[in-house]
Amino acid sequence: MEKIIRLGAKEINIQWINPGSAIDSKPVLIFLHEALGSIIQWKSFPTELCRSLNLPGVVIERTGHGKSSGLSGKRDIHYLHNYADETQEVLKEILNPDQKIILIGHSDGGSIALLLASRELKNLLAVVTMAAHTFVEEETLAGIHPAIAAFEAGKLDGLYRIHGEKTKELFYAWSDTWLEPSFKNWDIRHEIRSFQISALAMQGKNDQYGTEEQVNSIVSCHENRTGIMIPGCGHHPHLEKPEDTMKAISQWLRNIQ
């Protein structure tokens, strides 16, 4: 069930999964998508994970993406922090004050989930990240150039069916921001060290946008953080290895509850 919620001048598209089970005693899975992502690009993964765990879920489409409002200005080094602000606003709008939550974030969404955890987000039980970034690696920057070439050759035109007239602006907001020389200083490792809730960090061994050091930077701080590297997998564990990814997340969440 998709619906648009309004936050001031912004419209945010969300999708509820199994909303009938959204009672205060059950946590809600909150899905945060990648840099060029949307609700539809998650495919069936959120629904299947919610079904596996018998939990409700919400998929959030950030501004600039899908059916949500367009970008409101040029991005800078703080853009993921700004999206964390936006996500907090959305959660306050759609959830009961005492609703417990579990964040499931992919790529940019994973970084946003970590930032929210570092703020000691109310009622947050756990964080799961897939291909999250905590600092800028040369491998990350090298992976962006082929994406630009593919976009400019028309090989990513499917994005227009998802993001419409926002597509070009969204794509270059992502690529130009990460390739901006000053963005090499972006680093949230110091921010995410302190949170105490459990965290699972997953990444494909063949991820073209980052190395195992991204996972290590997340899990090395505390004993209640777990890292998993998935063999034969690139940047999208939930799409490339959905069964393995779902099994790992489900087992981990059951073990910590």
Give your account of this protein's structure.
The structure is a single chain. The protein has helices at residues 45-53, 79-94, 108-118, 138-152, 158-163, 167-179, 212-219, 237-240, 242-256, and strands at 2-7, 10-17, 28-32, 57-61, 101-106, 124-130, 198-204, 225-230. Helix 1 (45-53) packs parallel to helix 9 (242-256), helix 2 packs across helix 3 and helix 4 (138-152) packs antiparallel against helix 6. The protein has 257 residues and is of the alpha/beta class. It has one domain (2-256): Rossmann fold (3-Layer(aba) Sandwich), CATH 3.40.50. Strand 5 (101-106), helix 3 and strand 6 form a beta-alpha-beta unit. The radius of gyration is 17 Å and the shape is globular. It contains 9 helices and 8 strands. Strands 1-2-4-3-5-6-7-8 form an 8-stranded mixed beta sheet, sandwiched between helices.
Task: Summarize this structure briefly.
The protein is 38% helix and 19% strand. The chain is of the alpha/beta class.
- Overall tally of domains: 1
Q: Unreliable stretches, pLDDT < 50, 5 or more residues?
A: none
Can you tell me the CATH superfamily? Answer: Alpha/Beta hydrolase fold, catalytic domain
The overall pLDDT average reads 95
Compute the CA-based radius of gyration: 17 Å
- What would the CATH topology be? Rossmann fold
Helices and strands, in order, run as: EEEHEHEHEHHHEHEHH
Question: Topology, please?
Answer:
Blueprint: E1 2-7, E2 10-17, E3 28-32, H1 45-53, E4 57-61, H2 79-94, E5 101-106, H3 108-118, E6 124-130, H4 138-152, H5 158-163, H6 167-179, E7 198-204, H7 212-219, E8 225-230, H8 237-240, H9 242-256
Parallel strand pairs: 3-4, 3-5, 5-6, 6-7, 7-8
Antiparallel strand pairs: 1-2, 2-4
Helix pairs in contact: 1-9, 2-3, 4-6
